Amino acid sequence: MQNRSAGNAQGIDVSHYQGTVNWNRVKNDGIAFAFLKASQGTSSRDSTFITNAKGARTAGVLIGAYHFVNAKTTDAAVKEAANFADAIASAGGAAAFQLPPAMDYEQADSSMSKADINAVAQAFLTETQRLTGVKPIIYSGSSFANNFDASLGVYELWAARYSSSPPADTTAWSHWTFWQYSDGSAGGVRPNGARAVAGIAGPVDLNEYAGTEDELRKAYAQDGDNGEDETMTDAEKQQMQDLADRVAALEERVNMSNNQTPPAWANDAIIAAKGAGLITTSNDKGHAELVMIQMLYNAGLCNAELVAFFREFSAETKAAIDALVKG
């Protein structure tokens, strides 16, 4: 695969292992982008994901989310994708991330064949794209990546090789899009000759994009966006950030447990909705957000845009809106 090039955008990837990150110092130290650990397996979430997403966005660092795959079967892979999508929703939804979601698949159970590994990868990638609306990329070590067949070459590669020498070609790839060239202790060095990054205590994974920061921004611009966000005023950008933060806070609150009931202040509206025949019972839904969705749908106010919006919430919310639409 290709070597690194002068002028390529520099980035990092972080998880709870990095502790508290000062994102303003990270940005001022020349870091343009960051991949943030969101989730692992079918239920685990990284404890710093939401905080890191908010801090990096505010500092102007381009962000993407990644999920560490544990699945041994395609069914488990689909469930892991749901966990990943829910984690992304909790941090503002896919639209709040400038970089694509990444599947971190770097190890597998010894009982799994290459065919099993490819099936798990394809199941996770397909479901992640279905749930988030964004085509994912694949992160893997240069050795483990040899397990992937040519069909997975349609996904961009985030290659891990801690060295100043580039990763070797594999069956699926002869070109990397992102290269994790150091774990902060070994491997290549940043353009400034160091491995440390300001704002982070201790080592952190170092990455490079195969292009400039401007090219990185353009490569993953949302369809229909056409780069118009660059013409937004600072006040408009802050309004968008405030909205993303409010959505993230709402999603975090409504998913605190699996047995939430509507809050007391909603009782009058629920009683009125029952009397008008808009809903039959609040207990058949549980979450306050689902009661509201049912009310909107039954009143004929849940248009296509709202349906798409609600599908960005938790897996339970998506299931509820799908059931209403199909019904």
UniProtKB/TrEMBL annotation:
<dbReference type="GO" id="GO:0003796">
    <property type="term" value="F:lysozyme activity"/>
</dbReference>
<dbReference type="InterPro" id="IPR002053">
    <property type="entry name" value="Glyco_hydro_25"/>
</dbReference>
<comment type="similarity">
    <text>Belongs to the glycosyl hydrolase 25 family.</text>
</comment>
<protein>
    <submittedName>
        <fullName>Lysozyme</fullName>
        <ecNumber>3.2.1.17</ecNumber>
    </submittedName>
</protein>
<dbReference type="Pfam" id="PF01183">
    <property type="entry name" value="Glyco_hydro_25"/>
</dbReference>
<keyword id="KW-0175">Coiled coil</keyword>
<dbReference type="GO" id="GO:0016998">
    <property type="term" value="P:cell wall macromolecule catabolic process"/>
</dbReference>
<keyword id="KW-0326">Glycosidase</keyword>
<dbReference type="InterPro" id="IPR017853">
    <property type="entry name" value="GH"/>
</dbReference>
<keyword id="KW-0378">Hydrolase</keyword>
<dbReference type="GO" id="GO:0009253">
    <property type="term" value="P:peptidoglycan catabolic process"/>
</dbReference>
<dbReference type="InterPro" id="IPR018077">
    <property type="entry name" value="Glyco_hydro_fam25_subgr"/>
</dbReference>
<feature type="coiled-coil region">
    <location>
        <begin position="233"/>
        <end position="260"/>
    </location>
</feature>
<dbReference type="GO" id="GO:0016052">
    <property type="term" value="P:carbohydrate catabolic process"/>
</dbReference>
